[in-house]
C-alpha cells in the first residue's frame, strides 16, 4: 500500500515527536531532576506525557487519513501538532526557566488538543456523502 503524502507526513511527524518525548523524558529523569524544584519537575513531566500521547494521536491521524482523507482529519492532526508546540513547549520552557507567565499560554495548547480530538470524532461519525 502506498501512503499519501499527508499520511506519511503525519506518521513521520508523530514518530519524530514520540522520539523527542522519550529523549526529553530521559533528559528530565537524569539531568533536569537534579537542577529544578520538584514542582517544576512535575510540570516538565506533564509536558513529556502530553507530547507523547499526542504524538501517538498524530500517528493515528495519519493512519486514519489514509483511509478517509478529508480536511477535518487533516485539521485534527495539525491541531495536535500545534497543541504540542504550545502546551508542551510552554511547559518545558516554564519548568526550565521559571518564567511563570508562560503558564498563561499553556491553556491555548490544551484547547488545541481538545479541538483536535473533537474534530476527529466528528470527522469519523458524520454521514459520508
What would you note in describing this structure?
The protein has 129 residues and is mostly helical. 81% of the residues lie in helices and 0% in strands. Helix 3 runs antiparallel to helix 4 (106-125). It is built from 4 helices and no strands. The chain has one domain (5-124). It has helices spanning 5-32, 38-67, 71-97, 106-125. The mean pLDDT is 95.
Topology:
Elements lengths: L4 H28 L5 H30 L3 H27 L8 H20 L4
Helix pairs in contact: 1-2, 1-3, 2-3, 3-4
List keywords for this structure.
0% strand; mainly alpha; 129 residues; single chain
In short:
It contains 4 helices and no strands.
Helix content: over 70%
Helix tally? 4
Task: Give me the count of strands.
Answer: 0
* Largest sheet: number of strands, sense, barrel closure: none
What's the domain count?
Answer: 1
Termini separation: 25 Å
Mean pLDDT: 95
Order of helices and strands: HHHH
Apparent shape:
elongated
Task: Report strand %.
Answer: under 5%
Rg (C-alpha, Å) = 16 Å
Q: Class by helix and strand content?
A: mainly alpha
Low-confidence stretches: none
Amino acid at each position: 500500500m502506498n501512503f499519501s503524502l499527508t499520511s506519511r507526513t503525519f506518521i513521520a511527524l508523530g514518530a519524530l515527536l514520540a522520539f523527542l518525548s522519550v529523549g526529553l523524558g530521559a533528559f528530565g529523569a537524569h539531568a533536569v531532576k537534579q537542577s529544578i524544584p520538584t514542582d517544576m519537575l512535575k510540570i516538565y513531566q506533564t509536558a513529556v506525557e502530553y507530547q507523547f500521547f499526542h504524538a501517538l494521536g498524530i500517528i493515528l491521524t495519519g493512519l486514519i487519513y489514509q483511509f478517509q482523507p478529508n480536511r477535518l482529519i487533516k485539521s485534527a492532526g495539525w491541531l495536535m501538532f500545534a497543541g504540542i508546540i504550545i502546551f508542551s513547549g510552554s511547559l518545558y520552557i516554564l519548568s526550565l526557566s521559571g518564567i511563570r507567565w508562560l503558564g498563561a499560554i499553556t491553556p491555548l495548547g490544551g484547547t488545541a488538543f481538545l479541538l483536535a480530538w473533537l474534530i476527529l470524532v466528528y470527522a469519523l461519525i458524520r454521514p459520508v456523502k
